[in-house]
Amino acid sequence: APQGLANLAWAFATSGARGSAQRRLFAALAAESPSRLATFKTRELANLAWACAKIGLAPRALFEALGEEVARRASAFSVPDMSMTAWAFASAGHAAPAMFDALAEAATPRARECSGQAIANLAWAYATARHASPSLYSALASMAASRARDLSPQAVSNIAWSFATASHPLAETHLLLDALGAAAQRRLGRFKPQELANLCWAFARVRLPSPSLLDALAEEAARRLDAFSGQGVATLAWSYATLQHAQPDLFDAIAAEAAPRLRRFSPQAISTIAWAFATAG
Asked: Pairing with 102, which of 17, 89, 180, 236 sits 20 to 30 Å away (CA)?
């Protein structure tokens, strides 16, 4: 039954099992599903797409069939299932313009139904897929700004990254980032290193100065630099140099942390750090 196939795929993806036998089973599930998608409920379509993306197995034929079926029934999807499906296609790297258009058209007037996670998933999916949807982004920006204090650190980081990545009007993006930054500043200690780096990068990417946030973020990051990846360290350095926001203590901490770890940094990270120090003076 469709529900059984979707539930089995979902259970396999959430189990963490990644052995060859499990992957063969999942490949068989994926091969069996395309011809039967018309009989799947919308939740089952979303679960199947999510499971395929989660496991890293996204057969082209399956995703093409899924994209067509989702586009045909997008208006019947719940908002959480819309966000899950969009996330799955973006994660799988499968272009489905008609599906993304249909989901955006269905989700935009229902943006008030979005949870913080759904806002983040939709924003991330459209930015990652490089699929422009100005109306959807405007609706998501409004919802995210009004709920900024209630968003999780991960949601704040992902939404900020998404809007900075997407080609959305800067004025609206700046208003959203101001709201996210003000909410984040009170609880930076709850942000993971990558979330701090992403948030900082977003402000630098759209050239939005935010002195009080940047000062607080620099202080928090300096305390935890040993937990940052090489790319995370490079992102911090690039962001402060790009914004020309002086933070000598942070740069001293970066120098001390990076020096003994340079052999493990990627060439790109090393190049970015060198550029940042030369630019920051």
From this structure: 180
Neighbours of 169 (CB within 10 A): 12
Count of alpha carbons within 13 Å of 72, Cβ hemisphere only? 12
What does the pLDDT look like over 27-82, one tens digit per residue? 776 676 677 888 899 999 998 899 888 888 777 888 999 999 999 999 999 999 99
Mean pLDDT on 181-198 = 97
Element (H, E) at 65: helix 60-73
Cβ atoms within 10 Å, residue 150: 10
* Distance between CA atoms of residues 195 and 232, nearest Å: 9
Query: DSSP 3-state assignment of 133?
Result: coil
Distances (CA, A) of 195 to 79, 124, 139, 184, 235: 25, 14, 23, 11, 11
Instruction: Please report which residue ranges of 77-169 form alpha helices under DSSP H.
Output: 79-92, 97-107, 116-128, 134-146, 153-165
With CA atoms as reference, report the closest residue to 136 among 171, 161, 172: 172
- Tell me which residue has tokens 């992957």: 23
Residue 2 has pLDDT above 60, yes or no: no
Residues 6+ apart with CB under 8 A from 164: 173, 177, 201, 202, 203, 205, 206
Q: pTM of the full predicted structure?
A: 0.89
Q: Hunting for tokens 């949870």 — which residue is that?
A: 115
The three-class DSSP label of residue 260 is: helix
- Give the Cα separation of 244 and 221 in Å (integer): 17
Q: Which residues have CB under 8 Å from 142's CB, separation 6+?
A: 111
